[in-house]
Design goal:
The protein has 228 residues and is an alpha/beta fold. Helices cover 44% and strands 11% of the residues.
Length: 228
C-alpha cells in the first residue's frame, strides 16, 4: 500500500526551506552569520549579539516580521540580502528534490511552492537553484501579508489557486505549519524529518514523515489521481 493515498491527491503544495532546499543555509545565516555581522557592526561581543538576536527571533516567531527582510534591514540598519550573498554558496537543493518534482510533474499533478520567505530571499534562491523551472507556481506569503501559521493565509491561498483542500497534499518541515494546514482542511500533509543536512533526522510524531522523497517516486508514478 502506498505511503500516501496518491490516487486521492491532485494538487501538491510545497514549502521551500528545509523541504525542497537544504535548511543549512538559513540556519547558518540566522543563527551564526547575522549575529556575527551585528557584532562586527556594533563592536559588542558575539555572545551578546547572538543572545539578543535569539530573543528577538522568539518574539516574532510565526509572524510575517520573522520572515521579512525589510523588517530586519530596518531593525539592524543592514543590507540583509547583501549579507545573505556573503554565504550564498551554501544555498543548495536537497539531493532528492529534483526526482520528486519531476515525478510529480510527470504524474500530471499541479505543483505549487508556498513559502513564508520574503520575495528577496525567494529571488536569491531561485537564482541559485532554478526552482522556477520545476514548479508551476511560486508564491511568497508576503503577497498576502500573513504567514502559513495563520488561517487567513490558507483562505487567501485557496481563493487564489482554487484547489480542493480534500485532494491537496501539503509538505513542510514545520509541524506548527502542518497543523495550521490540517486545521484549515488540507486533506493530506507530510513532514520532513531532515530539513538541515548537517543535523540528524528528527523524530516526528502525529504526521506521516519522510527523509528521502526518492522512496516514494514509484508510488507517485504508479498511482495517478483518480477524479471520482
Amino acid at each position: 500500500m502506498p505511503f500516501l493515498p496518491w490516487k486521492e491527491i491532485n494538487t501538491v503544495l510545497l514549502d521551500m526551506d528545509g523541504t525542497l532546499l537544504d535548511l543549512h543555509f538559513d540556519n547558518q545565516f540566522w543563527l551564526e552569520h547575522l549575529p556575527k555581522k551585528l557584532a562586527e557592526k556594533s563592536g559588542r561581543s558575539l555572545a551578546d549579539c547572538r543572545k539578543e538576536m535569539h530573543e528577538h527571533y522568539s518574539r516574532v516567531s510565526g509572524r510575517i516580521e520573522w520572515y521579512c527582510l525589510d523588517y530586519w534591514a530596518k531593525h539592524l540598519d543592514m543590507d540583509i540580502v547583501a549579507a545573505k550573498r556573503e554565504i550564498e554558496h551554501l544555498i543548495a537543493m536537497r539531493d532528492d528534490t529534483l526526482p520528486f518534482l519531476d515525478a510529480l510533474h510527470n504524474s500530471g499533478r499541479e505543483v505549487v511552492l508556498v513559502t513564508n520567505a520574503h520575495p528577496g530571499s525567494l529571488s536569491l534562491k531561485v537564482e541559485h537553484t532554478k526552482l522556477d523551472s520545476h514548479i508551476d507556481t511560486l508564491i511568497s506569503t508576503h503577497e498576502f501579508g500573513v504567514t502559513k501559521e495563520s488561517q487567513a493565509l490558507w483562505h487567501a491561498l485557496q481563493a487564489r489557486l482554487g484547489f480542493d483542500p480534500a485532494t491537496t497534499l501539503f509538505v513542510d518541515d514545520s509541524l506548527n505549519i502542518l497543523e495550521a494546514a490540517k486545521t484549515f482542511g488540507i486533506g493530506h500533509v507530510l513532514a520532513v524529518k531532515n530539513p538541515d543536512s548537517k543535523q540528524p533526522d528528527r523524530e516526528v510524531e502525529g504526521y506521516p514523515a519522510i527523509s528521502d522523497y526518492r522512496t516514494i517516486i514509484d508510488d507517485i508514478t504508479n498511482n495517478p489521481f483518480e477524479n471520482a
